[in-house]
From TrEMBL:
SUPFAM superfamilies attached to this UniProt entry: MetI-like
Topology in membrane: Multi-pass membrane protein
Name of this chain's protein: ABC transporter permease
PROSITE patterns: ABC_TM1
Record has Lipoprotein as a keyword: no
Location(s) in or outside the cell: Cell membrane
Record-linked InterPro entries: BPD_transp_1_N, MetI-like, MetI-like_sf
Principal subcellular localisation of the protein: membrane
Membrane-crossing residue ranges in chain numbering: 9-27, 100-124, 145-165, 177-196, 231-257, 277-303
Length: 310
């Protein structure tokens, strides 16, 4: 456990430095006048001219060398300072904290819904002799082939525009959360239900599982005592891998539904060339990825029957 936590700590440090550096390089490499884009975000596209861009460039010291700017960012990072937004002037930490709360709400809601969808369907597919297996796997493959924004658009067309059951976009009420969370859940469940199915099939066909039936245990007792934990280990481990898809999905879903999370804010910051907000958002997402993977590893160690016996 200590070795795993030390490894994750080193990974966290590497991710923070790597994500921040790569973001800095990519944003500085984009074509166009950064000062003009920032001025357009501040004052509006119709109110920007070369004089306004020059004032912004002088105010934010955008004409300093990249090495100097990078050094200033690195020294601030070592002091746990993310700087101020180039557009609004507000501290990046405050903006990221506000956006992160909405993103975590969406992510947790989508993840819980995906578990409620994937686990029953995966177990149903794995049940021996089930004729629904081919149908469910075909449907899963079809959804898996769709980009997450296509799933979101389809849900918008039917549940928001055609039937009017939920709002099209925005936030403020529980109804605004339903379609974004359902979009994320369906995209995640289309992959994870196959992992549940394969893990359950492997467990159901294992010698120890069949032997427990020979000992006289009922089907439910066998599943509860010998099936649940053995099925759960690869499923939980896969959810750690799926965090990448979840982060990617959140960025697109928040932009599609105008959900005020970190993905939506990141998209606006990229358009406005607001480098501190971009770096802060990317850093927070990278840190979350490492922390959640560490949590998944700990859960796997806890539920693994082999680890429990050891």
């Amino acid at each position: 456990m200590k070795a795993m936590l030390l490894k994750r700590l080193l990974q966290l440090i590497t991710v923070v430095w790597g994500v921040g550096t790569l973001t800095f390089i990519l944003m500085r490499s984009l074509p166009g006048d950064m000062a003009y884009r920032i001025a357009a975000s501040r004052y509006g596209q119709d109110n920007v001219n070369s004089e306004a861009a020059a004032l912004v460039r002088a105010e934010l010291q955008l004409d300093q060398s990249p090495w100097v700017a990078y050094w200033h960012w690195l020294t601030d990072l070592l002091q746990f300072k993310l700087g101020d937004s180039l557009v609004s002037g507000l501290p990046v930490m405050d903006s990221v904290q506000h956006m992160l709360g909405h993103s975590l709400l969406l992510a947790l809601s989508g993840l819980m819904l995906s578990v409620l969808i994937a686990v029953p369907l995966g177990l149903l597919s794995a049940w021996r002799g089930n004729p629904l297996d081919s149908v469910l796997m075909g449907l899963s493959s079809a959804i898996r082939a769709m980009p997450v924004f296509v799933v979101g658009v389809l849900l918008l067309l039917f549940f928001a525009l055609h039937w009017g059951l939920f709002p099209v976009a925005g936030f403020g009420t529980p109804a605004h959360l339903v379609l974004p969370a359902l979009t994320l859940a369906i995209s995640l469940a289309a992959v994870s239900n196959r992992v549940v199915r394969d893990s359950a099939k492997h467990t159901f066909q294992a010698a120890f599982y069949r032997f427990s039936r020979v000992k006289g245990l009922s089907e439910w007792q066998t599943f509860r005592q010998h099936g649940v934990r053995n099925i759960a280990v690869p499923v939980v481990a896969f959810f750690g891998i799926q965090l990448v898809s979840m982060i990617e999905g959140i960025v697109m879903i928040e932009s599609l539904f105008s959900w005020p999370g970190i993905g939506h804010g990141l998209a606006h910051a990229i358009f406005a060339r607001d480098i501190p907000v971009i770096q802060g958002s990317a850093l927070v997402m990278g840190v979350l990825f490492v922390l959640l993977n560490t949590l998944v590893d700990i859960i796997c160690l806890w539920i693994d029957p082999r680890g429990a016996k050891a």
